[in-house]
Amino acid sequence: MTTKPFAFVIMPFDDKFKDIYEFGIKEPCNEEGFYCERVDEQIFQGNILQRIFNQISKADLIIADMSEKNPNVFFEAGYAEALGKKIIFITNDIKDIPFDLKHHKHIEYKSASSLKKEIKTILNWIMNNENSANIPEFSKLHLFCRGIEINQFKKLKINVEYNHNRGLLDLDSLLISLKIDINNFSDKIINSDFRIAIETKSFKHKEIKDDCFIVDLPGKKYINFSRNFKKIYPKNWISCFFELICTTHGANDFGDILKEDEFKIYIYNELGMLQYPCKIILEFPPLLFK
After folding, report:
1. CATH number for the domain whose boundaries are 137-289
2. Domain boundaries, the chain
3. pLDDT digit string (tens) for 166-200?
4. Model pTM greater than 0.70?
């Protein structure tokens, strides 16, 4: 029998959070194949704090409700962070998130039902990507674009620039400059070759340099690969840069780029790939609408 992944929940012990836990957290965990518990549901002997630390260390996933700036939850979340655990932060007020945790993705919920929907989406992604990709160490990497974390369903607005050097205002004059920052939040070295890749219909590397390359896919899609990275040390950052040009020809194709192009971001290594879901919204130069 396959053991279910264990999701341990840290949150304020208050009756007003009962529905949030039962229907907003535990129910979607059960539906997505996780075993979910809080420490107050467990039968044990001894110190409760030591029990919490023990459960955090054993958990595959931590769900931390930071609502109301509860000091116990902050302390426990800090311990989980120090262990390099995967954490889903939630709150009913984004102002409750301390400065040193604001770089993490947070779910701000208004009700148990809205929280359930968000939690289900993230858990589904975790199960489908981490179990199938077989590269669990890369789940410790967090990706950022222009200061915004792109691990979990963020909408990113990217400016599409106009290449004035061409002297023509057409689709082939459009380019995107994209910097992706990669952080290893864990206490372990990620010691394996890997690349960042961006899949798109309409944009590809402006020029091939270092050891970057492009793979053409069926359906007129491209995967743009970054240079190869050998390792990333604990708590360290590395960056990769993409300068992509538009490759779609013909004035009638502009609407397709604006409405239909779907960017996908991946980490690839020799064992497979891990997708980082995000929605990239392209903002085009206003001259194209004149």
Report:
1. 2.60.40.3880
2. 6-133, 137-289
3. 444 455 567 788 889 998 887 777 777 788 988 88
4. no
DSSP the chain: -PPPPEEEEE----GGGHHIIIIIIIHHHHHTT-EEE-GGGS---S-HHHHHHHHHHH-SEEEEE-GGG-HHHHHHHHHHHHTT--EEEEES-GGGS-GGGTTS-EEE-SSHHHHHHHHHHHHHHHHHHHHHH--GGGGGEEEEETTEE-SSSEEEEEEPEE-GGG---SGGGEEEEEEEEEEE-SSS-B-S-BEEEEEESSEEESS--TT-EEEEETTTEEEEE---B--B-TT-EEEEEEEEEE---SGGGHHHHHHH---EEEEEETTEEEEE-EEEEEE--GGGG-
Q: In this predicted model, what pLDDT tens digit does every residue of 86-132 receive, in sequence order?
A: 888 999 988 877 766 665 667 889 999 999 998 998 888 777 765 44
CATH fourth-level superfamily of 6-133: Response regulator (3.40.50.2300)
